[in-house]
Design a protein that fits this description.
This protein is of the alpha+beta class. It has 24 helices and 28 strands. Helix 14 packs across helix 15 and helix 15 runs antiparallel to helix 17. The relative contact order is 0.10.
Length: 673
């Protein structure tokens, strides 16, 4: 990736030489800024054809304003891609079937016959598909993927070509971003800051960047005579991602105010890690079917770690309890990237990893992308995940470790002075608070950063409405037995169809959130002195997948208390009990992949989580820090099943498609904060 600095006007000559612009191409780029409306920045300006002679690099195509200008024709194609359609293709040649789909949707679809034939494909290959009520984008994925084909939008046309062609050809586009990089301070001073935008593009468009072959792509900022542009050199897929990112950024709104207007009036952001922005970025690169299958193979490992850790905490903690296994495992897996030898082996075992380190980090990246990518737009829930590294000003991190963190976790490095404990504490807590929408306002205290030279932090924030909300007027005071006393609590209630099971004297109920992508499982043990303890022990033995597999739709009379509380833990003892021993002891600890020596060891693992459940839905957030220091149907309605949560119970918030457990907790007393 090119070094990101605002280049002076004279540096344009250097950029031109590096990218081998022809004079004609540069003139066409320069002249596109004239008063002629036909060459406005929102239109494509084609350069010379990409031709290669032997090993010579092809000249890039130039386009001003992005590969898919907002013309009515391209807007119609984008709209068509999201439209649900049904398809019945029986023994039809590919080209004819796509032509019919184009006619049905009113768009122009063209096959790149030359490239397809050169790659050994057949534009007339006979295909058969029967698809019902899925988006046209998904239809294209299903039809083209088995044929090693893909598509792009260019010249107001949807072009079907080979994957190799899309990845091979690097193009250069120039984007005007003046409205996104110029900010006005409170004193009225206008300043320019490209860094937040470039950082967000590099992380938010990660998938396409990694797909580039050869030397890869680059982003270079240019500023001249009040015009601020980003010159992006990459393949078509990446350019589409960049364009979608810029469009999402400009059209996202904060209340009734344009988000771009807020950015212009605010102080420069060091990095774009606002949950609303992250949601927009994540829509650019949803997982493919193959990627999702890979993620689903690793999720059970993370869940097993979370269930075993919860069982450890349940034994040593009284009262209400709430943690995010996902947040804890994410932070520890980042630390695992720096571990070597026996330290790495122990962490690998405790985290229940079943794949090599590089694969573990790659799958973690895919899972985070999946969790942050709503299946519908706009999303009906908020789920934001962020990572950050905090490095003492005197401490050197190996480039290889920094690259692993940046590429797989989107984790930037923040240089701070840990010896200034109040300032370091404030910086870390401010970041955590911002990522969790102020639900976790204070993760660390001054005493937690003493002696620390490096810290890893993860934050997760979740907010969603129930698919079927509880009526507030139906909430009534009711008795809840804590095991030691009986207390009055606000009890929500509703009757209706829910997925339900009863196994081993435990009732299990699934409450879906809107979009059905996430749900809460409520596990209600029998009313007995040791009912909750036995349930928690079973949870630690990985029984949840077996139990949840038995869920079936029943008519349920549901009563569930409102509750709100937070939990705070120092996890070192629990992790030692699970077998992660050496990491906490100077000498045996080996984190040499972080710093190049064996002076580091983990001093603390802090975790805080918050949950709020009411009639409308759920708010939950969690943050984890790993600190390292130097040593030295129709018919008669059935009788409803009673699900009366009037005694202690467990609950789990999970992502439904992969089964990833995001949060797990228990309610002993709904009234306890």
């Amino acid at each position: 990736m090119s070094k990101k600095v605002a280049l002076p006007v004279a540096a344009l000559v250097l950029v031109i030489l590096v990218w081998q612009f022809s004079t004609a191409n540069w003139n066409r780029f320069r002249d596109s800024g004239s008063d002629d409306d036909s060459s406005s920045p929102s239109q494509l300006v084609e350069g010379d054809e990409n031709k290669s002679n032997g090993d010579a690099k092809p000249l890039p195509t130039i386009a001003i304003g992005g590969p898919n200008a907002d013309t009515p024709a391209t807007a119609k194609i984008r709209e068509a891609l999201t439209k649900p359609i049904s398809v019945e293709i029986k023994d039809e040649p590919l080209n004819q079937a796509l032509a019919k789909l184009g006619k049905q949707l009113g768009i122009n679809i063209v096959l790149d016959n030359k490239r397809i034939l050169e790659a050994g494909g057949d534009p007339e290959e006979v295909i058969n598909h029967s698809l019902e009520n899925i988006s046209f984008r998904s239809v294209l994925e299903i039809i083209l993927r088995p044929l090693n084909l893909n598509w792009e939008i260019e010249h107001e046309t949807l072009i079907v070509t080979t994957n190799e062609e899309l990845n091979r050809t690097l193009r250069l586009y120039v984007y005007d971003v003046s409205d996104l990089v110029c900010h006005v301070t409170k004193t009225g001073q206008v300043i320019t800051d490209f860094e937040p935008l470039i950082h967000a593009m590099e992380n938010g468009v990660s998938g396409p960047w990694e797909a580039v072959s050869g030397e890869g792509g680059s982003i270079v900022p240019l500023e001249a005579e009040g015009i601020h542009v980003l010159v992006v050199y990459n393949n078509q897929r990446c350019q589409e991602g960049v364009e979608a990112f810029l469009r999402a950024l400009r059209t996202m709104r904060h209340g009734d105010v344009d988000l771009a207007e807020i950015l212009r009036k605010s102080k420069p952001l060091r990095e774009f890690e606002n949950p609303t922005l992250k949601t927009g970025l994540s829509q650019i690169t949803p997982l493919t079917g193959d990627e999702l299958q890979r993620v689903e193979t690793v999720v059970p490992s993370g869940n097993q770690f979370g269930e075993r850790l919860y069982a450890q905490l349940a034994v040593s903690t009284g009262g209400n309890l709430f943690v995010s296994p996902y947040s804890i495992s994410s932070a520890l897996t980042m630390a695992y990237a720096g571990a070597q030898g026996e330290t790495a082996r122990q962490m690998h075992q405790v985290l229940r990893l079943t794949v090599p380190p590089d694969e573990a980090h790659a799958l973690t990246r895919l899972l985070q992308r999946h969790l942050s990518s709503p299946r519908r737009t706009p999303a009906r829930y908020k789920l934001h995940v962020a990572n950050r590294l905090w490095c003492d000003e005197r401490f050197k991190v190996l480039d290889s470790f920094a690259s692993t963190m940046r590429d797989n976790y989107g984790a930037g490095i923040e240089r701070i002075n840990f010896s200034n404990q109040p300032a370091a504490t404030a910086a870390i807590n401010d970041w955590v608070s911002a990522q969790t929408n102020k639900l976790i306002p204070e993760l660390v205290g001054p005493h937690d950063v003493g002696g620390v030279v490096f810290m890893i932090t993860n934050a997760i924030c979740f907010e969603a409405a129930w698919k079927k909300e509880f009526l507030e007027e139906a909430t009534k005071p009711a008795e809840f037995s804590t095991g030691e006393a009986k207390v009055q609590v606000p009890m929500m209630s509703q009757t209706g169809p829910f997925r339900y099971a009863e196994v081993e004297k435990t009732q299990i109920l699934e409450l879906n959130y809107q979009d059905d992508q996430l749900s809460m499982l409520v596990l209600l043990p029998e009313k007995s002195a040791d009912g909750l303890t036995k349930l928690e022990q079973a949870l630690g033995q990985n029984m949840l997948p077996k139990w949840s597999a038995g869920l079936e739709t029943h008519h349920v009379n549901l009563k569930l208390p409102k509750f709100q509380f937070r939990s705070h833990f120092e996890l070192s003892d629990a992790l030692r009990s699970l077998g992660m021993v050496d990491a906490f002891v100077f000498g045996p600890a080996d984190f040499s992949a972080i710093s190049g020596n064996r002076q580091l060891y983990i001093t603390k693992v802090l975790h805080e989580a918050f949950v709020d459940v009411d009639e409308k839905g759920t708010k939950a957030a969690a943050a984890t820090s790993v600190s390292l220091g130097f040593g030295g149907a129709a018919g008669k309605e059935p009788e409803p099943v009673d699900f009366i949560a009037d005694h202690p119970f467990l609950f789990v918030i999970r992502e439904n498609e992969t089964g990833c457990i995001l949060f797990v907790g228990r309610v002993v007393n709904p009234n306890s904060p």
